[in-house]
Structure prediction request, 144 residues.
Amino acid sequence: MNQAAERLIPEGLWVMNPERSQRLVPGTHTLWIVKNDGKALIFASVETDAEEAVKLTSWDGEYDAGPVEVIGSGMMASIIAPAPGEMLITGDIPGMGAFSEHCVLSDDGSRLVCAGNIETPDGPITYCDDFDYRGAMPGPISTT
Prediction:
């Protein structure tokens, strides 16, 4: 069994806490984990910069598989679960370089801290998005 299934990062809405985060670009970040069953992960991400420009990205892929496009970013990324309550995302950011992001769920399941590193030609850049869990999204969504 995949270790991620032992202690999953909860599906639902995660909102970045700006005081605890160290962003590359100031702004807001909301993450919706749509599906996380230990085999596959689907998420949507909404980021707003200081000028209030909105960037929407999404990802739909399997753990321990090859790279998948992060829709809306041009990035390719893959994900593994190195331990229960953790995700390691790796890939390449066009125009910047290779990246890795290690996300860890707090013991009580209320926080998700994602620390990242980008290997640019000018040297490494680090960042940290620290999210608070806001709860499960209502569902299922009906189109009728």
The domain at 11-134 is CATH 2.40.128.20 (Lipocalin). The beta strands are 12-16, 27-36, 40-49, 54-62, 68-70, 75-80, 86-93, 97-105, 111-120, 123-135. DSSP finds no helices and ten strands in the chain.
